[in-house]
Amino acid sequence: MSSDLVSLGIEGLGLNLSPANILDLELFLQEMSRWNRVHNLTAIEGEANSVRLHLIDSITVLPVMRQFLGLQNPKIADLGSGGGLPAIPIAILQPEWRLTLIEAIRKKTAFLQHVRGKLGLKNIEVLSERVEAVAKSQPGQFDAVISRAFTNLAHFLELSLPLLKPDGLIFAMKARRANEELQDVCMDDWRLVADEPLQIPNLVVERRLLVLSPVRKLPL
Ligand SMILES: C[S@@+](CC[C@H](N)C(=O)[O-])C[C@H]1O[C@@H](n2cnc3c(N)ncnc32)[C@H](O)[C@@H]1O
């Protein structure tokens, strides 16, 4: 088993990762750094360990997502996927979930398509489009929407709403500014279902996963 992710404490997340899972996560990281050298994918720059920590950050959400997504094969959109976080690690660890990665920049989606082939990830779909366009072409199709480092919470909710099924859920990965960002959200339109602190092994940073659902409006 590769030791880099293990030495950063990935096993402390309690996710019961198999050796094959760890190898796939490491292969994703290798492809990221290889493509980054050639194509200068700025969103995935950084020291090897810092990129690894971004990946670990991305999978800390899984226990909470598992708790709230009751469906066997939920369809989940990742808005502004960039180099594939959090969608690719989630797709590796949850092969029965269906992930749609929406990213506007073509050289990033070329990388995501490459990773799809290299890792044989049959449960991901990569859309080289703006989120606003997908909201028009696939309205109300998703059981959940997630994003990481995409935009502020109020804007994320506004962009997600047309994509969501009526009983769909939002998973917003947030850091210190979560309380400030929550103040800008109209709570007549949204219900805060959960606000879960996330622990990243070996890193003292505040991370939270907010889970929200749209408030169903009764016809007048
Ligand atoms: C800061 S990066 C974060 C990437 C990744 N989620 C991560 O955590 O590493 C934000 C990404 O969102 C994409 N983006 C911004 N606005 C978008 C939009 N309206 N539709 C699709 N992609 C968008 C950008 O191209 C960029 O790749």
Automatic annotation (TrEMBL):
Alphabetical UniProt keywords: Cytoplasm, Methyltransferase, rRNA processing, S-adenosyl-L-methionine, Transferase
Catalytic activity, EC: 2.1.1.170
One GO cellular component term noted in the UniProt record for this chain: cytosol
Enzymatic reactions: guanosine(527) in 16S rRNA + S-adenosyl-L-methionine = N(7)-methylguanosine(527) in 16S rRNA + S-adenosyl-L-homocysteine
UniProt xrefs under InterPro entries: rRNA_ssu_MeTfrase_G (IPR003682), SAM-dependent_MTases_sf (IPR029063)
Keyword Transferase annotated: yes
Binding site for S-adenosyl-L-methionine: G80, L85, V131, E132, R148
Pfam families: GidB
Major localization class: cytoplasm
Gene3D superfamilies on file: Vaccinia Virus protein VP39 (3.40.50.150)
Molecular function via GO: rRNA (guanine-N7-)-methyltransferase activity
Compartments where found: Cytoplasm
Role of this protein: Specifically methylates the N7 position of guanine in position 527 of 16S rRNA.
Family: Belongs to the methyltransferase superfamily. RNA methyltransferase RsmG family.
Stated name of the protein: Ribosomal RNA small subunit methyltransferase G
Organism lineage: Bacteria, Pseudomonadati, Pseudomonadota, Betaproteobacteria, Burkholderiales
